[in-house]
Amino acid sequence: MTDTTQTPLRIVFAGTPDFAAASLQAVLDHSAQNQYEVIAVYTQPDRPAGRGQKLVASPVKQLALTHDIPVYQPLNFKDEADRQALADLNADIMIVAAYGLILPKAVLDTPKLGCINVHASLLPRWRGAAPIHRAVIAGDTLTGITIMQMDVGLDTGDMLHKKECDIKPEDTSGSLHDRLAVLGGEALIEGLEAIKSGQVTPETQDDSLTCYADKLTKQEGEVDWTQDASVISLRIRGLLPWPGAYTQTPAGVMKIHAAKLLNTEDQDFECGEITMVSKEGVVVNTGKGSILITELQFPGGKRMAVQDALNGKFKDQLQLGKRLGSQA
């Protein structure tokens, strides 16, 4: 790559959620050292949110506006005017982090150094929309950030830089997301420094090692109590905070906000049956082993500890011998 050590890199940043905002902030922090110049930001159009359904700007847009950076919000890049507007920026490089749009080849080829992506997985392990969640659900113990040169494939481009992150036994997708967002900013700066100095060595991905991280659906949150407790525990952690795990009760859907894996073997109980109730939580039997639910939420209620729920109007749903799930 071209050595651009003598002048700041002219950067276009494309991203939308908090994860992307962390990477943008990292670049802005280093812009003060005259290494990088963010000349424009691309983000998804404002979306309705909250009870009033008022239009809300993305975290990336909000950050850009506080730094007086021009913001572009095309629906896509099918319009020639949108592609020309990008070309007119005369960018050296485009950084993409959780943008939410598939970029056509014409866009990928527009910046002088192309487009790079901040991807929340140690590629080629998890390609696709939900790499953080899928890593937790699969029981992975290691993940990280890959800075990747983008091509027309789905997360298939050459790897430029990696930074590892352990997945802790207590991690949810939410807690892992927050650590990876920070790590993404760090990896991005390291990758940019290598690109800027011409020291980067692209590495081709091994397609035989990849998994596809499918987009999450609300339906995935329903717990199947016939599965092993280890599988259920990983799914509960992997689906927090969204879409969240849940189970059926006679009183309606009960959301599960926190749970622990138990290795007990209760052959005399049905799958989904509550086998123990205490202030620590309720123990539910599964296909193999048990789950201790410690925080939950009933319809129309708020998130609470089981100890509080046992004193509430839904306490009858948490009694010994009750069954959770569709069979309830």
Automatic annotation (TrEMBL):
Its EC number is 2.1.2.9. It comes from the Bacteria. InterPro entries: Fmt, Formyl_trans_C, Formyl_trans_C_sf, Formyl_transf_N, Formyl_transf_N_sf, Formyl_transferase-like_C_sf, GART_AS, Met-tRNA-FMT_C. Residues 10-190 form the Formyl transferase N-terminal domain. Residues 215-313 form the Formyl transferase C-terminal domain. Keywords: Protein biosynthesis, Transferase. One of its GO terms (molecular function) is methionyl-tRNA formyltransferase activity. Belongs to the Fmt family. HAMAP family: Formyl_trans. Attaches a formyl group to the free amino group of methionyl-tRNA(fMet). The formyl group appears to play a dual role in the initiator identity of N-formylmethionyl-tRNA by promoting its recognition by IF2 and preventing the misappropriation of this tRNA by the elongation apparatus. This is Methionyl-tRNA formyltransferase. It comes from Marinomonas communis. The lineage of its organism: Bacteria, Pseudomonadati, Pseudomonadota, Gammaproteobacteria, Oceanospirillales.
